[in-house]
Amino acid sequence: MRMFREGRNEEAMEILSKLNDTQGVVELAVSRIMEKLNVVLIQEPGVLVGVEEEVQWIQKNLMRLGVLFGYDFTEELMDVAYDLEDVIDDLILRSTAKQRRRGNWERFSLFIRIHMKLVLIKYKIPRLPRAPVSLLSSSSVPEYLEEMEWSPLFSIQSQNLANTVVSPVEEKVLALLALEALHRDSKKAATRVLDKFRSLDSFLKGLESVEIDDRGMVWMEELSHVSLSVVVVIQDFINNNQQRRKRSWMGSSFGKSKSQHDFDMKMDQIYAQIQKLSISKPHKDSQEQGQSRKLKPRATTLPQPTTQEPDFVSFADDVHAMMTRLLADDTSFGVITIMGMEGIGKTTLAKLIFNNKAVVDHFPFRSWPSTTACSSFGSRQILLDMMEQLMNYKMRVTRDTWVYSEHQEMMQKLKAFFIDNRSLVVMDDPSNFSWHDLFTVLGDTSNGTRMIRISREMGVASNPKTRNDFHPIRLRANDESWALFTHALKVNIPPELQKLKGEIVRRCGGLPLLIVKLAEELSHKDATIEEWSSALNQRCHDQEKLWSNTLCRIYKDLPLYMRRCLFSLTLFPQDLDIPSRRLIASWVAEDLVQTEGKNETPEDDAERCLNLLIVQGMVQVTKKKLNGNVKSIRLPNALRQYWLSKAQQATTLRDHIYTRSELFLGNDMIRHLVDHLDRKDISFDHIHGGCDTSSASLTHYYQDVLSFQSFDTRRESKPGEEVGNFLRRCISSSCFLLLRVLDLENVFRPNLPEALGELTQLRYLGLRSTFLEMLPSSISKLQNLQTLDLKHTNISTLPNSIWNEGYQSKLKPRLSMGSLTTLQTLCGLFVDEETPVRDGLNRLLNLRKLGLTVSSQPKAMSSQQEVVADWVLNLNHLRSLRLKSIDYNNQPWDLELKPLTGNLSLSCLYLFGRLRNPSLVSQFPHSLIDLTLSGSELTEDPVQSLDKLPNLKSLKLFAKSYLGNRMLCSLGGFPQLRVLKLWKLDQLGEWSVEKGALQALRDLEIRYCERLPMLLAELQHRTFLKIEVQPASL
């Protein structure tokens, strides 16, 4: 500050300009390096063995950009950044050495080199010189120090490097970095020059829209000359290097050659020139003198959409959950915090609740004070605003009595008021507010007073003495997104534009603010395919601003294993609603999830991981099951596009082949193979027969593949033939031997080769909806198989080789329980009198999910069904059971089942067939969440027993499940039931619902119950209940 007091403003501003200019280069370098390191952490965590602690310490310190930008404008900081990048490249090289089976000595020496470099970096960071305190306390710097922490996330993506100055430099530098045996000093010198040019890009873009004077034109000519110099110097070095390699029988020499030394000197001279030009940038007009760097997302908040009545349908689940908590019979004071990212609908949800009639009736006094002036006037202003709103309810005090009260006196009066009056207070989380004052006012109430708090932070401070509930808002599902879009749209949608529904929903990623803004924009455009499609393609800029906070949390806060799980979603097609059961099974098969409890299964951990990603707005639920559980998900479009582009940039040491699969770092071998029927993908010809691929070529690409997923959904014979031939050729070439996931769901009748049994590491075999008719006998060799999904196939039974006694005897030293003992999911299997259930299927005791269809052979099947019933009782881990007993006409047949009270993990049960033991209905486990009965032919009211199940959320009573004429939901029955479906109950003529029953019911569907009179008055006026009645006459 002394420089400013003595009037040397120009000198100080020049120093600040130089400091800020250096910060721009550091920002680019650190951003690029952090993204590169994150990809290494996600895709190749194994290369960190032995150095993980050092790498994480350095990553943590470099992510503290506010600290880094406090350093002086010396070269030491850049050296540290480039040193770390050199280590990352060595880590990638380590992965390459491992995958190419290089010798132990080479890998060990590489490990020692990496370790020594990391130790040196850790030594350097604390010893970096810092900028003078006077500069750091000046008016310009603190804003940067505060803002820059959030800026790297879109920095590289948003740059336009196609201009004539920067693009040639980038092209030549990347070509240089692809050279083998390039000395680290030469690499660092070239990268530093490139980062300097990149840091000028936004400034150059700004010059395109303004007029510059003669001095500016001279500056541009000098910059162009320096750019040309870089191109010439690098090209000469590349040419000399190639000639030297041809002349020398040793190829690349070790150490640093004279040509590299000369090259380094020239690059240092060029860097000095560009540094000087960067400091002397020409001034633009005052209108254009805004900061060229990006600010953090909080400073770029999008304008709010036009105020309108909030859409209830899109937030119905959230409103119901919040109302249940608010109106609970609990007199103690409680806080419910609505959490979520910007634009996700926190305030909209709060408005829907605040103005709800049930809330208005329950809370005689309600207040929503303004928090916009809190930063200027503090908590007193909020308390005054709260008081004025409460006065509208005819408080027996005058306004002046409150306004001129001392702060403590006002708090005491408010406290006394809230103690006597049940109230609801909504606080839109202010950034500068003393929560202690508010908790002092509200905390001692015991009349059911509640506070709703709105916050973007996923973890917010709270009072330990107050009950705190958290309600994170998820992204909207497909149907909710479309409902919100049509609600906000001010025009009718022509039929020809309905085809854009999927694209509109996908582009907005379930984010309400984007949905409403898009609807408002399209309301003012012509309703044509061209106009609407053009508007959809221009949504990228808004998405960057809104999703940048989420991206920051992914990089800074998300554990490594969750980042790896999240990244796996990029392998699926962008327009696919990914089934959650498919995703969870693949995560478990690849050991991506982290076990947190001794009693938790990997499936529990995977499901918890998925729910956490949903809660944090990183994954969108696209469809929900009737019971409210997640059915399918999708990675939001903005995150998908960003992450794919960053992964491609960060993993490229040289030009890679084009593929949509995931490559090993540092080479062209594929880690996770996906087939999207993309003709540009290198794997397309390998899979679909467009080229004659040699064994060596297949080995190069597919030797270490961990998962293979095909999304070839053509309904013809070719997909099955092509994928079968590809599997056969790969296995015969010793490929896929590490494969853990083979997911061929929806591939029409894949020809599975007999060699499939050689994939002994396979854990997940997904054949759902393939209409496959038989399995290869070698499947019995898949000892590690956990999931075999045969649903919607024509496979009637498993191969006899699985039950072969000779094969079983070979397993006796291990488990003595037959093959496939690790199987956890078995769906779609048909059991007849010849199926080996005893001493066969009943050896599979680790099943979590089982789906069987039993044929009708009264004499032969009676004993079979009894064995099946005993087998089910022994499945202690069973969570989902689907049993069908059918005759030759696919009609319900006798179903044998014993009491399931011991199956304590069972949550989903589907029974199709006449229950030979009707009392079974009263012996279901309390863990049951989803129950479906069809053809059960029960004569006694099943609801009398089922309404006692405390966790039941979905109940479906289908045709002939109940043959009686009366049904009663007793007092307080079905406390958690959300979905009730009554179909074709021909004899049902009377249905009674006592007080307090079905309080959580959300969806009621009655079809073809011809004797049932009109809907009960008890249910007709439920606010949140969706009712569908389809008379028998229809």
Automatic annotation (TrEMBL):
<dbReference type="InterPro" id="IPR055414">
    <property type="entry name" value="LRR_R13L4/SHOC2-like"/>
</dbReference>
<dbReference type="InterPro" id="IPR032675">
    <property type="entry name" value="LRR_dom_sf"/>
</dbReference>
<feature type="domain" description="Disease resistance protein winged helix">
    <location>
        <begin position="571"/>
        <end position="635"/>
    </location>
</feature>
<dbReference type="Pfam" id="PF23559">
    <property type="entry name" value="WHD_DRP"/>
</dbReference>
<dbReference type="InterPro" id="IPR044974">
    <property type="entry name" value="Disease_R_plants"/>
</dbReference>
<dbReference type="InterPro" id="IPR027417">
    <property type="entry name" value="P-loop_NTPase"/>
</dbReference>
<dbReference type="Pfam" id="PF23598">
    <property type="entry name" value="LRR_14"/>
</dbReference>
<dbReference type="InterPro" id="IPR042197">
    <property type="entry name" value="Apaf_helical"/>
</dbReference>
<dbReference type="InterPro" id="IPR002182">
    <property type="entry name" value="NB-ARC"/>
</dbReference>
<feature type="domain" description="NB-ARC">
    <location>
        <begin position="317"/>
        <end position="487"/>
    </location>
</feature>
<dbReference type="InterPro" id="IPR038005">
    <property type="entry name" value="RX-like_CC"/>
</dbReference>
<dbReference type="GO" id="GO:0098542">
    <property type="term" value="P:defense response to other organism"/>
</dbReference>
<keyword id="KW-0611">Plant defense</keyword>
<dbReference type="GO" id="GO:0043531">
    <property type="term" value="F:ADP binding"/>
</dbReference>
<dbReference type="InterPro" id="IPR036388">
    <property type="entry name" value="WH-like_DNA-bd_sf"/>
</dbReference>
<dbReference type="InterPro" id="IPR058922">
    <property type="entry name" value="WHD_DRP"/>
</dbReference>
<feature type="domain" description="Disease resistance R13L4/SHOC-2-like LRR">
    <location>
        <begin position="731"/>
        <end position="1008"/>
    </location>
</feature>
<protein>
    <submittedName>
        <fullName>Uncharacterized protein</fullName>
    </submittedName>
</protein>
<feature type="region of interest" description="Disordered">
    <location>
        <begin position="280"/>
        <end position="307"/>
    </location>
</feature>
<keyword id="KW-0547">Nucleotide-binding</keyword>
<keyword id="KW-0677">Repeat</keyword>
<dbReference type="Pfam" id="PF00931">
    <property type="entry name" value="NB-ARC"/>
</dbReference>
